[in-house]
């Protein structure tokens, strides 16, 4: 077995991060205030456009938690959430004592299905609890059906929390993901498009909402000479050190997007003649995806019996990491008691889908190894 592991998505630092971190050390601003925080927030606001206001936080999960608070979610409320996602989209609903209502995906974007969403809202209203918010996710950097989801949300006057943790740099009709929700969320965890080691951000439509998020994130200190508090506080602010890493990463974000898209194009080419394997891609020119992760769907009826697991194990045997798609939340032991609306789109995708190595730091040699494993697996199969 090759002793160099190929990861699905690993941190990719390119050099200038250290300059900003050094500045923080030199000035002794190493905590929750400083020029890197101001600089990173400005960089993100410029990048996203739409006159948005960005607050840098300790994680994407923290941003979802504060986002739900700012949308007015309280104990006993219900919040709709896309079932096929990472658990961090859902956990903050439970931190607040509210409960999730899960909704299926559709096949074009693998994200929230507008029809199932409306059915869920109508049924919850009939049962006496109108959902307080909708969490919509851009999985793997592919934008959800922005116009259709917005139309349903507006019809029932329910705000959208846009989980754009995987989608910085993706866009819909030229507008950046992160700016479509009533509140948007970004993540800079180590495995995302860009990293601050760990971190996230909240994207607000007004300065007042951003300021409120930062107030909550720094222990909700009232304006007084002593420590005075009239609201529950959180310790969710990003540090000025991490923000320094983020400033360096913003300089290479567009390059990271180009390199992830190059990985995606590599897979489209690799699988183009293999019937039964499809590479997930945007179906329409309005959608621009950063392809944070490249994913395939394997149909064993068309591949002579090779299924998702066969591909995963063949890659693993050569020390190449791959992983099934997000297991839907309504199938998770911790969440299975909550209501679910939809059919089996997310379940089927989970059964047949696989995420492949997608990092912006993968090399020609890495691609050759992946290509070898896949080519060998499907060639042997033809001859058997
Ligand atoms: C990574 C991720 C999060 C959480 O972000 P953290 O910064 O790791 O807390 C939330 N939602 C989705 C869809 C993610 O992929």
Topology of helices and strands:
Layout: H1 17-27, H2 35-48, E1 53-57, H3 60-70, E2 78-82, H4 91-95, E3 99-103, H5 114-126, E4 133-137, H6 146-155, E5 160-163, E6 171-172, E7 175-176, E8 183-187, E9 200-204, H7 207-217, H8 240-250, H9 253-270, E10 277-279, E11 287-288, E12 294-298, H10 308-317, E13 323-324, E14 340-341, H11 345-352, E15 353-356, H12 364-383
Parallel strand pairs: 2-3, 2-4, 3-14, 4-5, 5-8
Antiparallel strand pairs: 1-9, 6-7, 6-11, 8-9, 10-12, 12-15, 13-15
Pyridoxal-5'-phosphate (PLP) binds next to helix 3.
Folded structure, characterized:
The chain is an alpha/beta fold and 384 residues long. It has two domains: 17-252, Type I PLP-dependent aspartate aminotransferase-like (Major domain) (Aspartate Aminotransferase, domain 2, 3-Layer(aba) Sandwich); 254-383, Aspartate Aminotransferase, domain 1 (Alpha-Beta Complex), CATH 3.90.1150.10. The chain is 37% helix and 15% strand. It has twelve helices and 15 strands. The chain has helices at 17-27, 35-48, 60-70, 91-95, 114-126, 146-155, 207-217, 240-250, 253-270, 308-317, 345-352, 364-383, and strands spanning 53-57, 78-82, 99-103, 133-137, 160-163, 171-172, 175-176, 183-187, 200-204, 277-279, 287-288, 294-298, 323-324, 340-341, 353-356. It has an eight-stranded mixed sheet with strand order 1-9-8-5-4-2-3-14, with helices on both faces. Strands 10-12-15-13 form a four-stranded antiparallel sheet. Strands 7-6-11 form a three-stranded antiparallel sheet, with no helix packed on it. Strand 4 (133-137), helix 6 and strand 5 form a beta-alpha-beta unit. The radius of gyration is 21 Å and the shape is globular. The mean pLDDT is 96. The structure holds pyridoxal-5'-phosphate (PLP). Residues 59-61, 85-86, 88-89, 137, 163, 165-166, 187, 189, 200 line the site of pyridoxal-5'-phosphate (PLP). The site of pyridoxal-5'-phosphate (PLP) has 14 residues, from helix 3.
